[in-house]
Specification:
It contains 7 helices and 9 strands. The protein is α/β, with parallel strands linked by helices and 203 residues long. The protein has a single domain, classed as 3-Layer(aba) Sandwich (Rossmann fold), CATH 3.40.50.1820. A 6-stranded parallel beta sheet has the order 2-1-3-4-8-9, with helices on one face. A 3-stranded antiparallel beta sheet has the order 5-6-7. The longest helix has 12 residues. It is globular and about 40 Å long. The termini are close together.
Length: 203
């Protein structure tokens, strides 16, 4: 099965261990894309395959949810890791509603460039629990734009990896996110980033 890896906020392909053996196109997020642009770009990429499994981490889980909603015929399974899950609101609004203020406090909006900047990489790494190479910015429109109207209509099986020792997204909040999509919960005794470093939970 072909797997597509979609990284969390400020992460790219280098965050994933080689065991996942999947395709990762996160470098396109270094461009000034809005959510519609990103969905069109990713749709053209998954059209190369008959079916795909999407694996989304954190903010990347929200993007994976959006892509699954607009291309349900292509996605056979959705894997979410400590992921942000929308009930119809954009990513930024979902972050606010979920109370994940620690993340927003170390970011800054650059209005001129239209980018979300990572202001304190050190504090970010502490929240993640591991030192991982990061990008220094994300397109603001990816977080601000409204998601597809079909965002909650996910028809494929969904698994949600709950990181029990997460400093950013408490396990109790992750369980609420999993319920939003009626996802199968998978408990993982690690921090926010640790499931990307060990693929043994992936079955």
């Amino acid at each position: 099965m072909t797997r597509i890896l979609i990284s969390g906020l400020f992460f790219r392909k280098s965050a994933w261990c080689k065991d996942f053996n999947g395709y990762c196109y996160d470098d396109i997020r270094d461009e000034d894309l809005n959510l519609s642009d990103w969905l069109k770009n990713m749709s053209s990429r998954i059209d190369q395959f008959s079916e795909v499994e999407l694996i989304g981490h954190s903010f990347g889980g929200y993007l994976a949810q959006c892509l699954t909603a607009v291309r349900p015929e292509k996605v056979s399974k959705l894997w979410l890791i400590s992921a942000l899950v929308s009930q119809g609101e954009g990513a930024f609004e979902t972050y606010q509603q979920s109370g994940q203020g620690d993340l927003m406090s170390i970011c800054k909006l650059d209005l001129i460039r239209g980018r979300i900047l990572l202001e304190s990489p050190h504090d970010f790494q502490n929240l993640m629990g591991n030192k991982v190479t990061t990008s220094n910015s994300e397109s603001a429109q990816l977080l601000i734009d409204p998601p597809p109207r079909s965002i909650t209509n996910i028809s494929c099986p969904v698994n949600y990896v709950i990181t029990e020792k997460d400093n950013l997204t408490p396990a109790s909040l992750q369980r609420q996110f999993a319920l939003r999509l009626n996802a199968k919960p998978i408990s993982w005794q690690g921090n926010h980033i640790s499931p990307l470093l060990n693929s043994s939970w992936l079955k």
